[in-house]
Amino acid sequence: MTVNKSDTDLTEPAKVKDEMAKLIQPGGKVITFAYNTSGMGKSRGFELTRILLVCHGAEHNDTICTVERKINEVLF
Hints:
Elements: H1 5-8, H2 11-23, E1 29-34, E2 46-54, E3 63-70
Antiparallel strand pairs: 1-3, 2-3
């Protein structure tokens, strides 16, 4: 398989988050499981309300769980 720019480009996840933000009503929540806490972000109208660090033991990476609540509408 050949790897090209679109395979490593970070714009696709951002586009998905932009579309998700349009669908979620103010007061709605998003739970993200990742290796960072970037989540949906303030620029999309969300506030970070909870963070949980999950240890998987031994040589496994931890997972960071975040909960964000939409506080206002952002026009894209």
